[in-house]
Amino acid sequence: MATVRIPTPLRKYTEGKEEVDIAGANVGQLLDNLDAKHGGIGERIRDPKGAVRRFVNIFVGDEDIRFLDGLETPVKDGDEVSIIPAIAGGL
Amino acid sequence: MSGSVPAIRPEHLASIYRHAQATFPKECCGFILGASGDAPAQLVECENWQDKYHAVDPETFPRTAERAYMFGAKDTRRLADSFDGETPATIIYHSHPRVGAYFSEEDTRAALSAGWAVDYLVVDCQEDHVAGAVLFRREGQAFVEVARFPGERG
Ligand SMILES: [Zn+2]
């Protein structure tokens, strides 16, 4: 089980919970299991093709999975995974 | 967000302007924890990670840091965690090199998607000075100007 940290803008999907424990050998599986438990959150995180949306960051510990193995990034027992809307913008 | 327009302490604004100038021609970014007018408020200058995201996935992130900003992991987590603490973030800032302080379509897309309960400060950074800054607040699906701050000659 990994602990998934849920920031304030996404807590409407987790009945207000700040964190939830979710199983999954990698981030992709973890997201599948998260969505199965908390309907609607999956769509918020991934597009219809299954890719992580541009303005969503998923961190395992302090590293964005885009700098690791993406959805294949392995998740170990006790890992902390954070799913956080990107703080971003431009011209 | 609703309620009164937050004050920005002069030393916070000066630091943000210095940050914008030091980062030019790239965008700078950061945030203010707590209300800037209050004693415990803290300015957090962030590193713009946009170039790193562009390097690893140019298809998803076609822009470089000259035209976009993105917080890195530590700063993103710190801002997210602030909403569970005593001094939640109140303002996220970034600079616009050369083009003026407006809330762009990209800024709007990102901010609407995220849903952070903050105001957004955009700094008009020119090559040799900061021309000013504008504070924007969400109103429905748009962001409107709620305060304007003068610039300074560099
Ligand atoms: Zn912008």
UniProtKB/TrEMBL annotation, chain A:
A Pfam family it matches: ThiS
InterPro entries: Beta-grasp_dom_sf, Mopterin_synth/thiamin_S_b, Sulfur_Carrier/Prot_Modifier, ThiS/MoaD-like
Protein name, as recorded: ThiS family protein
Species this chain originates from: Plesiocystis pacifica SIR-1
Lineage of origin: Bacteria, Pseudomonadati, Myxococcota, Polyangia, Nannocystales
UniProtKB/TrEMBL annotation, chain B:
Lineage summary: Bacteria, Pseudomonadati, Myxococcota, Polyangia, Nannocystales
UniProt record, GO biological process: proteolysis
InterPro entries from the UniProt entry: JAB_dom_prok (IPR028090), VirAsm_ModProt (IPR051929)
GO MF entry, a single one: zinc ion binding
Protein name per Swiss-Prot or TrEMBL: JAB domain-containing protein
Superkingdom of origin organism: Bacteria
One Pfam family linked to the record: Prok-JAB
Alphabetical UniProt keywords: Hydrolase, Metal-binding, Metalloprotease, Protease, Zinc
Domain JAB intervals: 11-124
